[in-house]
Amino acid sequence: MTGPDYRIDGFAPASALVEDDFHAATLSDDMYTELASHHTKRNTFLLLYDSTAVWDVPGTAEYVGMRVQRDLFEGTFTFEHIRQPTVPITQNWLISRGCPPDAIELSAPPGPRPADGLTSRLEDMLRANPDGRYTLLDHHTHNPSSFNEGIEVSALVHDGHPGSTERPYRLFLEETTPSLDTYTVREGAFTNPEAVDAWLRDRDTPLPMAPAPAHHPVDRRATAALTRTTTNAMASTQPPLPGITAVPGTVQARSRGLS
């Protein structure tokens, strides 16, 4: 296997620190799957799936966003990268750094597909993050590497929208079926991070659903929202997200078929 196309042939790291950091970030890049990329003369944007995350610290996110910047005059490059819990959140990180939204879409997703319209609508909201309303606080990926269980990703965000002041802490829960055919995303609304922890730990009540997102200009696939039935299948294996002081404005070898 070969790594992603960083387009740095003929370019040198801009500093020793850049060289060390780039080496560390790409040490196992032969295990990366390139899901989407966009290249210009000066910039490369990459959306990657890291199949080694399942062997990392439990809860490690499996998606990587990377931006490589080339200095054409100096013949050097710098880069920045981040590990994110889901595809839309990673796409938003890349878009916020200048990548055109259409250029980083998954044209032919190799993994599971959205199970319903509500999933697509919520993903569109996370991808666009209109007016920067969502601030990612914490996340956890549960990939048991078992054909008897699905994959669950939980992402805790603070919602800065004026209409969310009563329950500003939102839990985006992505659940992939054991067959890896489809997945759902649902948004729960909570008053504080401790309430999120308690729900993830106990799961003795349905997820307190946030209002379904309105149709948005970026939502190209919206259909009628479907009701979600919450189970406690993951309750014993999903550790709680750590409680975070409310500060508005801050905040396995088996993969999802992407390796």
Helix content: 10-25%
**Which whole number gives the mean pLDDT?**
85
- Low-confidence stretches are 217-254
Derived from helix and strand composition plus strand pairing, the structural class reads alpha+beta
Q: Kindly, what is the distance between the CA atoms of the first and last residues, rounded to a whole number of angstroms?
A: 11 Å
- Overall outline: globular
* SSE string, helices as H and strands as E: EHEEEEHEHEEEEH
What number of domains? 2
Q: What strand order characterises the main sheet?
A: 1-5-4-3-2
Largest sheet descriptor: 5 strands, mixed
The portion of residues forming beta strands comes to: 25-35%
SS elements, strand count? 10
User: C-alpha Rg, in Å?
Assistant: 19 Å
The helix count comes to 4
Organism: Streptomyces reniochalinae
Protein name: Glycosyl hydrolase
